[in-house]
Hints:
This protein has 274 residues and is an alpha/beta fold. The protein contains six helices and 13 strands. The mean pLDDT is 95.
Amino acid sequence: MITKWLVRGDCHGRFDWLNELQQYRQEETAIIILGDTGLNFFLNNTDKKNKELVESWRYYLYCVRGNHEARPQRLYSMEYIFDKNVGGWVMYEPEYPHIRYFKDYGIYTINGYRCLVIGGAYSVDKWYRLARWNFTEGTNVATKSGWFNDEQLSELEMKNCETLINDDNEFDFVFTHTCPMRFQPTDLFLGFIDQSKVDTTMETWLDKIYDMIKVKYAWCFGHYHADRLERPHVEQYFNDIEELDLIARRWKEYDMGMELDWYLVTSPFFFSDI
């Protein structure tokens, strides 16, 4: 039975941080990774070795899909199962039962919290990855370029997600890889990227989702490689690892007029209007 739920951001196939969790009981601890876990990136023996390593730790990993990884459902070895730990359907490979993958969009109940999960994002290095192999979007071979042409949700998937949300739009947490446009950490943008050529379809759509729902505790995302509070009730994760209950308590106390802990890093836009 899982008794502790943790949250962290992108790890891109690096799992040395599991050494930091020895105060948590194996088999009773789960980590939600907010995209780009890196277990389905190379689609070869490198992925297999990483999965074997993660499985050996016997912590549960629940993975939101990022942009630098294949959709799990594209792997022939994946199976769908109803997972009572999250109250919904996930994907997994029977050979690695401790590694679970959320659907690209779905509603889950995690540790008693009602959660919305949405995966996918655009890769700002897409054209570089294609160019170094002289690929086009049409001739791309993902196992060589490392770019996956279905990295973002399709228009149909977005519409289906909206329909799902319309049934009940109140959530304790939202877990996504990228974030709504209004929260984008523009100060972290890479200077050598021409932002006019960046596809912001997902971020624009997530703005719409933000306006459709109510979030009680926090919207948590990764993708931009920083650890900080972006706005009240909005958190970005990279290397930091926090307990889900601690995050909920933070924002419950904040709404009661209590100050945030002194050690927390806040975005320069933390108090900006949204």
